[in-house]
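Entry 14. Ran structure prediction on the chain below.
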Amino acid sequence: MRAADGTGAPRCRPARSSTARAEALLIDATSSGITGRTGNILSGEGRLGTTVNGALGNISGGLTADVWNQQDGATIREDALTNAATGALGNAAGHARFHDMEGHGSMGGENLSDRGKLTDAAYKNSFGTGLNTAIYSAGSGIESDLQNLAEDADEAGEGAK
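Output, structure tokens:
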């Protein structure tokens, strides 16, 4: 895509976090009138909601990439499991960190200025994206190692015949 300003410079699309992808897929619990625990989960509120939100967000992103790249069913299944685990873990860890910071008064607050709110949001976005990226990379590496181990075991079994 090119910028609309006529410079011809490429226009960058911002990366979407797993939370943003999941929010695009999930029901808007508030407008649909869903309340209680189910409403909290669907809206991404609380520990369970943000964990489910992260898992669904990573699954949707990975599924889109796998379908686009015409991956086979086994690859899609393995990627979906890795994506669910890493998305859930990343969002749960981020939620725990932010909840801890809010409890100690180092983030949030009732009388926070606009600048303070902007600073908190910038920290949350940066930390959350970095944390999710690190956890996803680790999960992908583990998945790759397990796949290679299975291939090596298959080759060793064929060689012993």
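Residues 18-159 form one domain. Will compare against last week's run tomorrow.
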